Amino acid sequence: MEKTILVVDDDPDIVKLITKSLRLEQFEVISAHSGPEALAVLKENPVDFIVLDIMMPQMDGLEVCRNIRNNYTIPILFLSARDRDIDKIIGLEIGADDYMTKPFSVQELTSRIKAHFRKFDRLYNEWKGLKQEAEPQRFPSPSPLILNKKTFEAYLDQEKIELSTKEFQILSFLMHHPNNVLTREQIYENVWAGEYGEINTVTVHIKNIRKKLGSKYDFIKTIWGIGYKYTEG
């Protein structure tokens, strides 16, 4: 099925450049030139991936991302003229899945998007061969935290939690190795595989997952100097 990508940037030349490249790869592309326009597009159209500029007038990309994360789990790649590490961290903390700085290579941008879809398809094909998991409605469960790998949905105490794709994949990987300490390198290699990215984003995503899970449970423990461990004890 053809994937639809929303490209959001107030620079029409950049939108045209990205759109042309993505359409050559057989992607369907919808464009928006402001934050409010992008949010309006999402209400009316199914979208599989978002390329989002940060520095836009009226509503910047960070605010757009916050709005999107309140309602959608669509993967988001930020574009920004700012290349400071702190800007990247802020973008990832509020829910972005990837980050590129301007000027950028449109070929690299396209490759990152294609890598995301390959990773998603590979995981789906691996998981669909597993036995059907209990639906979230089939409670009580021995665990208060349930991941439905067929729908990429997470439930804690029967309440749905909105996780980004990467957050879901990290949590799933940790849960599949309970009580085992996993290094950041192991998590990065499993979740990002051949995709572009930075290993420091693992720490940022773990922080986001903990925040979304709340303080009632301490599922993810930090093993200082080594990595992380999932436990329900």
Architecture overview:
With 233 residues, the protein is of the alpha/beta class. It has two domains: 115 residues, 3-Layer(aba) Sandwich (Rossmann fold); 95 residues, Winged helix-like DNA-binding domain superfamily/Winged helix DNA-binding domain (Arc Repressor Mutant, subunit A, Orthogonal Bundle). Helix content is 42%, strand content 20%. It has eight helices and eleven strands. The strands form three sheets. Strands 2-1-3-4-5 form a five-stranded parallel beta sheet, sandwiched between helices. It has a three-stranded antiparallel beta sheet with strand order 6-7-8, with no helix packed on it. The chain has a three-stranded antiparallel beta sheet with strand order 9-11-10. Strand 7 and strand 8 form a beta hairpin. The radius of gyration is 18 Å and the shape is globular. The protein starts with a strand and ends with a strand. About 5% of the residues have low confidence. Keywords: DNA-binding, Phosphoprotein, Transcription, Transcription regulation, Two-component regulatory system. It holds the Pfam family Response_reg. This is Stage 0 sporulation protein A homolog. GO terms for molecular function: phosphorelay response regulator activity; transcription cis-regulatory region binding. InterPro entries: CheY-like_superfamily, OmpR/PhoB-type_DNA-bd, Sig_transdc_resp-reg_C-effctor, Sig_transdc_resp-reg_receiver, WalR-like, WH-like_DNA-bd_sf.
Features:
233 residues, alpha/beta, Rossmann fold, Arc Repressor Mutant, subunit A, 5-stranded parallel β-sheet, 3-stranded antiparallel β-sheet, 8 helices, 20% strand, globular, WH-like_DNA-bd_sf, transcription, phosphorelay response regulator activity, transcription regulation, DNA-binding
